[in-house]
């Protein structure tokens, strides 16, 4: 099965659930034997539970981590983080335009743009180059207004209450 028409979806906002929503879409797509590739920007740590699940769903789901372990300094990102983000976007372009995948998810790419790791113009070029049959999903906080304008669907996750504020750390199997 191939998609007749692939669209561009954006999951953004300060609430929890952007990556999780994209993984739900990936699960649905793999159930229909569509090929899915998720490239995770700024997620060099791990392993995360979704990577372990991808191993079980291979060859339909591939997850590629990029970036260094730890947090990117959003006020003054290191050149190494910029270089790794540029490499990840080049890889994303290969996956989007290469013909192997039906759905490509660029996890946390909006954050990479908002932190200055990637110029928004490079992401917009990739969005414009997307083949008609490929669905493209962009996740992360602070989606750029030009990305929002170019997308077909934009969902904003809004935090109302979060257990992190009560001191609950990220839990294995739930957040990681």
TrEMBL record:
**What PANTHER family does the record point to?**
CORRINOID ADENOSYLTRANSFERASE
List the catalysed reactions.
Answer: 2 cob(II)yrinate a,c diamide + reduced [electron-transfer flavoprotein] + 2 ATP = 2 adenosylcob(III)yrinate a,c-diamide + 2 triphosphate + oxidized [electron-transfer flavoprotein] + 3 H(+); 2 cob(II)alamin + reduced [electron-transfer flavoprotein] + 2 ATP = 2 adenosylcob(III)alamin + 2 triphosphate + oxidized [electron-transfer flavoprotein] + 3 H(+)
Annotated GO MF terms: corrinoid adenosyltransferase activity
Protein name listed in UniProt: corrinoid adenosyltransferase
Gene3D superfamilies recorded? P-loop containing nucleotide triphosphate hydrolases (3.40.50.300)
The text of the family note is:
Belongs to the Cob(I)alamin adenosyltransferase family.
Under NCBIfam families, the record lists: cobA (TIGR00708), PRK05986.1 (NF004637)
Enumerate the transmembrane spans: none
Function according to Swiss-Prot or TrEMBL = Required for both de novo synthesis of the corrin ring for the assimilation of exogenous corrinoids. Participates in the adenosylation of a variety of incomplete and complete corrinoids.
Q: Does Iron appear among the keywords? A: no
Gene name per UniProt: cobO
Q: Which UniProt keywords apply?
A: Transferase
The UniProt entry, under Pfam families, shows: CobA_CobO_BtuR
Q: What is its EC number?
A: 2.5.1.17
Q: Where is the signal peptide?
A: none
Which pathway does UniProt place it in?
Cofactor biosynthesis; adenosylcobalamin biosynthesis; adenosylcobalamin from cob(II)yrinate a,c-diamide: step 2/7
Q: What is the uppermost EC class here?
A: transferase
């Amino acid at each position: 099965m191939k998609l007749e028409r692939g669209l561009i979806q954006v999951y953004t906002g300060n609430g929890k659930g952007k990556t999780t929503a994209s993984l739900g879409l990936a699960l649905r797509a793999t159930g229909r034997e569509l090929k899915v590739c998720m490239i995770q920007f700024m997620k060099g740590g791990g392993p995360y539970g979704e990577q372990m699940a991808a191993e079980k769903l291979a060859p339909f789901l591939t997850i590629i981590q990029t970036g260094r372990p730890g947090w990117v300094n959003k006020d003054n990102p290191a050149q190494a983080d910029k270089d790794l983000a540029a490499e990840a976007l080049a890889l994303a372009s290969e996956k989007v335009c290469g013909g192997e995948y039906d759905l490509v998810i660029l996890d946390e790419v909006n954050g990479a743009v908002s932190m200055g790791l990637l110029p928004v113009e490079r992401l917009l070029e990739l969005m414009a180059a997307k083949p008609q049959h490929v669905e493209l999903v962009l996740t992360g906080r602070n989606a750029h207004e030009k990305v929002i304008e170019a997308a077909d669907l934009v969902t904003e996750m809004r935090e109302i209450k979060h257990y992190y504020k009560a001191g609950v750390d990220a839990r294995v199997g739930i957040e990681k």
